[in-house]
Amino acid sequence: MSVRADAETLRNIPIFRDCEAVPLQVMAFAAERQTFAPGETLISEGTRAKAAYFILQGNATLKQGTKAIGLAEPGAFLGELAMIGNTQYSLTAVAESPVSTARIDRALFLRVVSEYPEFGDAVMKALSEKLGTSVRELDGVRNLFNRSRSFTQL
What we know:
By secondary structure, the protein is α+β, with helices and mostly antiparallel strands. It contains five helices and eight strands. The protein starts with a helix and ends in a 7-residue tail after the last helix.
């Protein structure tokens, strides 16, 4: 694929949806291509996030602890929040089939943010919207919980 096509593919990721083409092209160009054989781990729950992985081909099982919680397919972006926040991965991803990724490390991401401040602004806006949605969903759950009967009344 061309750098422009890769950049447009990155734009499909919600946090990059409103970003300009040039910083996405820089990131697509500089991202390291990495492959994983079936059974290899892409990211491990509880380890410090040094990079995020954009799945180009193949599938990976997503796990929390030993429990499978989903399947990541081409177009999935794994570990981006942990990478941006410099925290630990909250899940493990294991290749189910041969997996090809674009690895975007934290240093690359921060360099693009520093050289293209509007890119950083767009990403932070998208993350803020995502956080707002999560808070609203949690408020809804809290309201349901508050209206429910006491466990002792069941």
